[in-house]
């Protein structure tokens, strides 16, 4: 398959697994302004047209977020900044952010989420309140993605998943009653079987929003465990902890081969499986993640797809 929109040609290795290559089509990746600054040339790493999320961490000035979005847009990427509800003080601030992103970076997509801060800065505490303002629709946004948690979210549900499930039902209804194109972009996890069970449970509950599954990119094991604990990764964290106990594997970098291959095989056997895309968290670095993705067929993704 020919590679698309690369400044430098990257050969697809002969050992690429067809199901994995298909599963990696139109993958997305997440960056922060400070990590993006370290990348000299994004088109050397990622196919143009790739969806690039920009994480908005508390304390990051909106000017830095918009500047990163403008750079990525100029390089030919589909830019999707985070809008964390709890750090947006009021409707006027939200309208200002939307106007800046559109005016300076031609942004038409957003990931709406509650955000990791304990106490809201102002009137918003969850993504549903952002959606209810109508400001994204009025600004002509084409896509609104929301967060998903295959292993639950203890910030929302101390036990069980009742509140998270109710929120997803509300968002599914929002998709049904509006023209919004939506997807659920999830937190990363490390076991395929529970992810499959969670995705199937959404389908059984009548939630039709497609899932973009979060996958942690290659990284040092110690780095990955640190991020996993900080991000509240649930039971699948034991996969990393077990690996850390094996001296022969402790110093080897983690790569997501096993989980990707298992999810890809399930998708190949079940074409209507509601996990439609892969979303990478490049915890070991953007270049490292991009190199792994290329080597497994991601370099021949077709970012221009309408999904």
Automatic annotation (TrEMBL):
Q: Which GO terms describe its molecular function?
A: oxidoreductase activity
Which InterPro entries does the entry mention? FAD-linked_oxidoreductase-like (IPR029041)
Sorted alphabetically, the keyword list is: Oxidoreductase
State the protein's name.
Methylenetetrahydrofolate reductase (NADPH)
Q: Which lineage is the organism of this entry classified under, starting from the top rank? A: Bacteria, Pseudomonadati, Pseudomonadota, Alphaproteobacteria, Rhodobacterales
């Amino acid at each position: 398959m020919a590679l698309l929109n690369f400044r430098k040609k990257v050969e697809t290795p002969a050992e690429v697994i067809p199901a994995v290559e298909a599963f990696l089509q139109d993958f997305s990746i997440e960056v922060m302004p400070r990590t993006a600054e370290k990348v000299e040339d994004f088109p050397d790493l990622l196919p143009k047209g790739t969806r690039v999320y920009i994480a908005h961490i508390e304390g990051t000035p909106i000017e830095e977020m918009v500047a990163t979005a403008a750079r990525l847009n100029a390089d030919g990427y589909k830019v999707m900044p985070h809008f964390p509800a709890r750090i947006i003080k009021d409707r006027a601030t939200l309208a200002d952010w939307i106007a800046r992103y559109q005016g300076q970076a031609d942004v038409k997509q957003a990931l709406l989420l509650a955000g990791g801060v304990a106490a809201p800065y102002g009137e918003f505490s969850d993504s549903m309140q952002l959606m209810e303002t109508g400001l994204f629709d009025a600004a002509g946004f084409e896509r609104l993605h929301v967060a998903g948690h295959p292993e639950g979210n203890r910030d929302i549900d101390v036990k069980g998943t009742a509140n998270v499930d109710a929120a997803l039902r509300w968002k599914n209804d929002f998709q049904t009653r509006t023209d919004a194109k939506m997807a659920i972009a999830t937190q990363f996890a490390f076991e395929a079987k529970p992810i499959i069970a969670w995705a199937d449970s959404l389908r059984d509950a009548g939630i039709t929003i497609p899932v973009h599954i979060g996958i942690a990119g290659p990284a040092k094991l110690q780095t990955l465990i640190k991020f996993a604990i900080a991000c509240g990764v649930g039971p699948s964290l034991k996969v990393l902890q077990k690996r850390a106990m094996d001296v022969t594997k402790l110093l080897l970098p983690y790569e997501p081969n096993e989980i990707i291959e298992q999810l890809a095989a399930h998708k190949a056997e079940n074409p209507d499986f509601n996990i439609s895309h892969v979303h990478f968290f490049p915890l070991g670095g953007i270049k490292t993640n991009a190199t792994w993705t290329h080597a497994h067929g991601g370099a021949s993704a077709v970012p221009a797809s309408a999904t």
